Amino acid sequence: MICIVCGQPIEEGRRNSQPPREAKYCLKCRTERRRRARVKDIWRPEYDAYLKTHYFGGLNRRFQVLSRMVRLTGLPRWYVKRQAVRLGLTIRIDRKPWTPGEMELLEKLVGACHQ
């Protein structure tokens, strides 16, 4: 058997104990086809611009912007939110460092860490 894309020789294969059938693609071409099939849509620079101009205000406003982006792009909500995080549009509260009193209490309860 020969791959119809690259012309390399391939062997017949079995799948889940089914009878063998003729393969059209080699392993490399099969994986490339699978990768392309999984990509639904590509994030475009216009989407970044839209998020940068509209992703502000309270929770209700951000919810509306996210819903609109999901409708327009067809991308999942978590993906749009992740892009907003990457663009630095979300508010992140920095954690405060531990106080000396907290560190002493921790050392009493757990023991001292030696580095």
Q: Can you put this structure into words, describing what you see?
A:
The chain folds into two domains: 39 residues, no CATH class; 42 residues, no CATH class. The longest helix is centred in the middle third of the chain and has 15 residues. With 115 residues, the chain is an all-alpha fold.
Please describe the structure with a list of short key phrases separated by commas or semicolons.
115 residues, 2 domains, 5 helices, 50% helix, 0% strand
Range of strand content:
under 5%
- Main sheet attributes: strand count, strand direction, barrel closure: none
Order of helices and strands: HHHHH
> How much helical structure, as a percent, in the residues?
40-55%
Q: Tell me the domain tally.
A: 2
Task: Give me the secondary-structure category.
Answer: mainly alpha
Q: Helix count?
A: 5
What's the Cα radius of gyration?
Answer: 26 Å
Average predicted confidence as pLDDT: 81
The CA-CA distance between the termini, in Å, is 61 Å
Low-confidence stretches: none
What overall form do the CA principal axes indicate? flat
Count all strands and give the number: 0
